[in-house]
């Protein structure tokens, strides 16, 4: 009986660990220059692809900021609510083949994301190939 109980506990903890090891959920973005938290981005799946939307802006002075440098339908759109990660597809341990929007300059970059650990997400935006780009690390929001 004790053996079965230990096995059941092990299975449940593996399942809980596996579910915590995905990229979906809310992530706190960190400013490259200041090291301060900027926003909360929610990463979700839609039609088999992965997207990320700004759901909260943490700087009170930027609550009503808009994407003045963006083009098309995103031009002058509020940054809060803006989908900044678009169309990523799962490829092994990472998600790639999509784009990320930098609301500061309105430009799209190729993008990939992958978990460094259950609470740290590596987000890489780049031009051409992944060596020419910038990496940020986002922190999982635990509620």
From TrEMBL:
Coiled coil: none
Signal peptide bounds: 1-20
Domain DUF2147: 25-140
Domain of life of the organism encoding this protein: Bacteria
Stored Pfam families: DUF2147
InterPro entries according to UniProt: DUF2147
Key words of the record: Signal
Protein name as annotated: DUF2147 domain-containing protein
Organism: Constantimarinum furrinae
């Amino acid at each position: 009986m004790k053996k079965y109980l230990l096995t059941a506990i092990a299975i449940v903890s593996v399942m809980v660990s596996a579910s915590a090891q995905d990229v979906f959920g809310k992530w706190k973005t960190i400013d490259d220059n200041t090291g301060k938290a900027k926003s909360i981005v929610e990463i979700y799946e839609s039609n088999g692809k992965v997207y990320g939307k700004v759901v909260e802006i943490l700087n009170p002075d930027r609550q009503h900021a808009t994407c003045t440098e963006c083009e098309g339908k995103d031009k002058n759109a509020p940054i809060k609510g803006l989908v900044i990660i678009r169309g990523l597809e799962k490829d092994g341990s990472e998600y790639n083949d999509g784009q990320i929007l930098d609301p500061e300059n309105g430009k799209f970059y190729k993008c990939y994301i992958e978990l460094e650990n259950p609470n740290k997400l590596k987000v890489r935006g780049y031009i051409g190939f992944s060596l020419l780009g910038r990496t940020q690390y986002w922190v999982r929001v635990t509620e």
